[in-house]
Specification:
mainly alpha; 3-stranded antiparallel sheet; two-stranded antiparallel ribbon; 8 helices; 5 strands; 11% strand; globular
Length: 216
């Protein structure tokens, strides 16, 4: 009887692939259906933003940093404005600081809803996909009230904000926060005890705490 040997299969995934929500290439090593190695190849979304910023003013660059990660644009605006303010020794008024945090937290939730929605869609839990995007639309509506844009708002400014919050914004944001908290419990019920979800995610891609810290 011939000896059984183990061989790995090299598979190129991307840079265009139906299950990838963006442009990325992964060089995978497979043993059957198990991924035993992965080499990510990045750079497909490089747009030369750094070079473009060299010939623009600090304020003009705010609209460029929005496009670094368009699902969480307020985070890029926040980081960029803080960097320029530190260089120029500019102190931001307390109210503007608070509004920046509010908008960034709403952005974080909106971005996480996209992650959860697309992850659920890949596992054919389409109801969660629809619920997540419905909640995200409510957040984007708040962004539109504040900045005039649903995405890539360009609302933060060096030293503060483009303008103050519209009347009634805080009340609407609080109402939405309460709604999202209730919906989070629904997502938990739909996914945490979903057998397919657990089989495909539990004990997959696990790394140690030390490795996670080492990666930054």
């Amino acid at each position: 009887m011939s000896q059984v040997t183990r061989e790995t299969l090299t598979l190129n995934m991307g840079p265009q692939h139906p299950s990838m929500h963006g442009v990325l290439r992964l060089i995978l090593q497979l043993e059957g259906e198990v991924v035993v190695g992965c080499e990510p190849v990045i750079g497909y979304l490089h747009t030369g933003i750094e070079k473009q910023m060299e010939t623009r003013t600090y304020h003009q660059n705010i609209t460029l940093v929005d496009r670094i990660e368009y699902l969480a644009a307020f985070h890029e605006e926040f980081a960029y404005c803080m960097a320029v303010e530190k260089l120029l020794d500019i102190e931001v008024p307390p109210r503007a600081q608070a509004i920046r945090v509010i908008m960034s937290e709403l952005t974080r939730v909106a971005s996480h809803l996209v992650y959860l929605a697309t992850s659920a869609l890949e596992l054919n839990v389409s109801s969660v996909y629809m619920y997540c995007f419905s909640d995200r639309e409510e957040i984007l509506s708040l962004f539109e009230e504040v900045s005039g844009q649903r995405m890539m708002p360009g609302y933060f400014r060096i030293g503060g904000l483009q303008w103050d919050l519209p009347e009634g914004f805080i009340e609407r944001a609080r109402t939405l926060a309460d709604l999202l908290e209730r919906h989070q419990e629904e997502y938990e019920a739909l996914l945490t005890n979903n057998l397919i979800w657990r089989q495909r995610y539990e004990s997959v891609g696990v790394i140690s705490a030390a490795d996670a810290l080492a990666y930054g």
